[in-house]
Input
Amino acid sequence: MKEPNKPPSKGLYLLPNLFTTSALFAGFYAITGAVNGHFEVAVMAIFIAMVLDGLDGRVARMTNTQSEFGAQYDSLADLVSFGIAPAAVAYAWGLSSLGKLGWMAAFVYATCGALRLARFNVQHNTADKRYFQGLASPAAAALVAGYIWVMEDYQISGMAAVYGLLVVTTLTGLLMVSNIRYHSFKELNFTGKVPFVVSVIVMLVLALVYVAPPLVLFVVFLLYAGSGIALTISLLRRRKRDKKVDSSE
Output
């Protein structure tokens, strides 16, 4: 006799969702740190959220515990940690001194973060896995948080620093909703063998991060933001070149 179909389980996978909750907590902690004026702690919390956000998906794939709930929960946590938290920290650190202009810049960033995540969720199954369309929200958050961390670490203040933050916050927000392509690095195989020189480069990067964490992290993500512009220009030129070849045949 055939057994009746069992209803789907209503339980949740603990391990990947635990990482997601931890990332959400780090984002919330960044907001509370900014409210209390602890800006260095706040930006560190955003970078911790980035690490945790990178782990939850990998843990889910390694343990075969992916779920639609986990994907949606991760997206909502990203909105807090990489959309709301950086905007709140930026506003509390300096944008509030610009009045409505600073408020608008923080709101534009937060809104662009939400739009970026919504577009990613819609296009997730059809988009080219090798590239992101628009700057990923964790990288955008790293730019905003990294800039504030550099200013705090080198004790740079004044209106020049505030206007610099205004530019960084606004541009990173717009990059998130742009059509500029960025390497996703999802094709990299971290379990396979790599050339010896790669291990040396990784060691040097880690050493530099240890020596000057704020500056090195900000420069790394700034270069990544610029790499997308260079990649998009290169892809457009290649497409035009291919069209010319096709038309001449």
In short: The chain has a mean pLDDT of 89. The helical segments are 14-35, 39-62, 68-93, 100-123, 137-153, 159-176, 196-211, 213-248. The chain has one domain: 14-186+194-248. The domain at 14-186+194-248 is CATH 1.20.120.1760 (Four Helix Bundle (Hemerythrin (Met), subunit A)).
